[in-house]
Sequence to fold (379 residues):
Amino acid sequence: MFESLKIPYFPVQKMGAFITAIGTANPANQYQQKDLAQFMCDHLDLDDAEQKRLKVLYRATGITTRHSVLDDYKKKKGSFTFYPNQDGTTEFPSTHARMQTYRDKALPLAISAVTECLGDQHQLSEFTHLITVSCTGMYAPGLDVDLVKALNLSPTIRRNSLNFMGCYAAMNAIGIGKDICDSHGHAKVLIVSVELCSIHLQKMQTEDNLLAHSLFADGAAALVMSSIARPNESALAIKQTASQLFMQGKNDMAWQIGDSGFQMALTAYVPDIIEGGIKKLTDQLLEQSNLDLSMIHAFAIHPGGKKILEAIEKQLGIAKSQNEVAYDVLRNYGNMSSPTILFVLKRVWSKLEDEPDKNILSFAFGPGLTMESILFQTI
Fold:
């Protein structure tokens, strides 16, 4: 008699482009939206009617709390360390001064996000590529080089920096990460997004400035991408990406470098432009993926503002409850520009982490007017 032959079973690794971990971080300074509104009223020397209008604007955002690397927002004029202390002054921090603050504050915040992302599960020496994302500060050698030094990454690591692309930039970074993973069989990519929006408060009382100051905040996110998904480990597969540029919105969302910080153009027409284009972008992505909207199990949408979320729900016919994670991130953190979509994606993924083969449709928006989309699938 022949003894039965026992063949050992080795689980098969999946190849492609996968997100294996996401981490997020915020500065220690947390502010109530109502207190930030009062700071603006006091700091901009608004009269009673102007104060009332501004407070209505702040309440309408749906934001409860936001974070900042600056502690001036909890101080009285006379004890500021960033903003001018003299009443009636037209002098505001220069772009040089703001960039120095960015250089001092961005790296620690980025490291906090990386630390939460990696935990004890990753060997830093294994990373083959580093992609940094930011539109609120620049210097050279830059954040990428500082991260290599601070994290003791390999000096041979391939580096890319995405600068000044705005709120959708993390989606582009994921797209680049997918290209890298698809091209390199053993790639391991670290993506780090950090934004310090609060350092760019402007003195001019324009509609664009007041709207921007009511929404934006500081935060960071990091994620790991790999060309290999190991058995029995949760991952998000990047199945498809699609992009649309709507040139009619070029002047409705813009970001310029000025003499006293970065200056934003952000009009009230942005939700209308997104509403007019989101269906076309969705159809493009779903057609490429051989899916229809009924086969999407969850949505991860950048909360650029409450009206943007409502416009997308209207066009795609999805319920507010299907978009609750985006509202929750907006309510608790505001719009942190590029890291924001990763805050949303992390929470959506956590709800489906034990459910394989679930499709997640994700959107983000920014200057251009640019609309980005990615189809993820849980593993």
